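During the no-cost extension, the postdoctoral fellow (Dr. R.K.) reprocessed legacy sequence entries with the updated structure-token encoder. One reprocessed record is reproduced below for audit purposes.
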Amino acid sequence: MAFPSTLAPRRTLYPEIEAFNKGWMKTDSVHEIYWEESGNPAGIPVVVLHGGPGGAVNPGLRRYFDPAVYRIVMFDQRGCGLSRPNASLENNTTWDLVADIEAIREMLGIDKWVVFGGSWGSTLSLTYAIKHPERTRALVLRGIFLMTKKELHWFYQDGASMIWPDLWENFLAPIPEDERDNLMAAYYKRLTGDDVEERRRCAIAWATWEGNTVTVAGPTASPDKFGDPDFAVAFARIENWYFTNGGFFDSENWIIENIDKIRHIPTSITQGRFDVVTPASGAWALHRAFPEAKLDIIGDAGHAAGEPGIIGSLIRATDWAATV
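Re-encoded structure tokens follow.
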């Protein structure tokens, strides 16, 4: 069912907590994955899949879960956050990340868990569940992104540019006019090139475009991390790498084509009505293909997990997921 949450009472984040266990997991490649656990060691396991690709987890993500109820597992995906080597594109695909999620589950001795993810994290959550439905207790999703050409064209070529034309000029600035007919390709050449200064300049422009548009408030609410060169290089390189390769899926509509494999899994979808990064059309397409999932459209929110209406919806969703 679809329901607007504007009439629902607003919820706030749970208190800050510290991790009780953490470390790095070696893979069969160059990558070592940073992981951590917080909350109740005997609680319901939940794995948190961050956005990007190329973002990272942060302590604030622990606060979307009742710490007395949940055993909260978080990790930084390949090439970003505290995982190493930083910004590496080697053996860095969706399928490598799915394998990492399974390896973490097995390492921690978890049978089934709730899977929580927003933006690219929603893409990865759905992909993981399709591949491992028997390990997925419930899905809590936000800001649905299906990795379609239409979504990518909207945000990186023509669409969101008409809503934020002033910010779009800054995104265009590093790219010569004769290369602007394919901005993802132009950025790819620079983000993977040998010119370190140009890579940093382009990475900051790429990351800042997203950071400045994730909320309805625009640049005034942009997280500082998007302007940090170290964060931006990993974020921009890995995002562009995945997007240029279509998420490494066999087909553009792979998620929808395989959705019947997970329609039995209890699922909640939170979507900002004014999300310009991953527009509500993606959440609606998923809901149409997966009508059993709850769809909560937040009428006064954009893309960011930290907007008040999004917070309230996600807290209600994680409380609900603990009961199914």
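The beta strands are 2-4, 19-26, 32-39, 44-49, 70-75, 113-118, 136-142, 267-272, 294-298. DSSP finds ten helices and nine strands in the chain. The remaining legacy entries will be reprocessed before the final report is submitted.
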